[in-house]
Amino acid sequence: MSLRLLSVSAAALFLAVCASPAAAQDAAVEAQAVVIRDQAMRSNIALDYVTQVTTRFGALPAGSRAEQQAAAWAADYMRAHGFQNVRIEEFPLVGWERGQSSGEVLGAHPQVLALAALGHSPATPRGGIEGEVVRFTSLEDLQAAPEGSLRGKIAYVDFGQMRPMQDGSGYGPQTRVRGAGPGVAAAKGAAAFILRSVGSDENRLPHTGTTQYVDGKPTIPSFALAAPDADQVSRLVAMGEPVRLRLTSTARTYETHSQNVIGDLPGAARPDEVIVLGSHMDSWDLGTGAIDDAAGGAITLAAAKAIADSGRRPARTIRVVLYGSEEVAQPTRETGNGGGVYARNQGAALDTHIIAGESDFGADRVYALRLPAGAQGSDFQKAANRVLYPIGVLASRQVETEGGVDIGPMGPLGVPFFGLAQDGTRYFDLHHTANDTLDKIDPAQLTQNVAAWAALVWLIADSDVDFRAMRPADASPDAAH
Q: Which Gene3D superfamilies does the UniProt record give (predicted)?
């Protein structure tokens, strides 16, 4: 049933007590959420965690020794902060190591290009690959190229600069080019693939990211150009003369393992009912993974810790999962990613997973709360809005359906999702680049995230709200109110 929560003023609490014991309990839950929210706004645990993990270990490529060491350290960090049942869930992985990569324009006016090899693309032959550039403006254009027309050439997709957006919605249409483009280019006969970096900045820093395997096999050497270099190559092509590049990469794959780090704060009354707070530990090797996604681990750990430090245990169990291997593709289902491994290993226990939320969009402020279908307009949403509005978070009519890469595999198995939408205006300036470092985190905005997560999770964890049983709301346009 829905949580019937009233306002947190003294008068409202008095009226609730007079009305019924149930109403009094609901009002007390909401009042405690406010206490937790305000205490979390003064906490420094999130900043401590993100500082330690990025400083001690640097970048954490999936399956690397650094990721494995960081996971062991994070498990100890959880134990030291009162988490119980802390465990590490290992799984096999095909790791990828960048090695060295380079690119240059050949001919009468040679130029060096700022680029980065894309994840899980293979190495070039010794001495590199040389070829003429064929430019496309979309994945569809590349797909329409005649069979064999790119034989021995370098396919280049320049989809134009990504525009910064608060919700990051420009990323999806472009990142699919990075994932699928190399396979399409290889099928057309291309010797290599390059694309404009998937990012919203104009820095001369390339954005890396993973490519997809095709039938369990890697495709062709693939690279991302920094935005100014993408512009340069496009201008050269537009001049009408053939443009030839030399590309080199010494990347390699290797057999290894990754892992999920799991810790619980057991519920007092209904410990078998679990709320999952997720983020991922692995990061790309160019920066130190501060915003993607050490910040997410910091936010979820600190939120759970804020609830534990409030002096009251909620009815339900709060579980924090630091997933491994979120960033990379894998050749088979038997390897990677941490989210799929967790969902499969839980089996029937997923039936008692009440809801899950993921923090994987940096450390800038939360501005909207999104709940599962059926919760829009509910007493729970109204209560959450009262608690979160004072710190700048509005309840949204937008339904949270996807969750994120890590918690997403639980969705088809019946687990609902909530979302705390963050301001992503500058996220894709930094994402997957050498600029993803600790100094980009604003401590005040990081703390606002923790407060929003802690207050919301308390409301869920100390209630009897059943999001699975809620009827979907009537169709309505997405809007905040």
A: 3.50.30.30, Zn peptidases
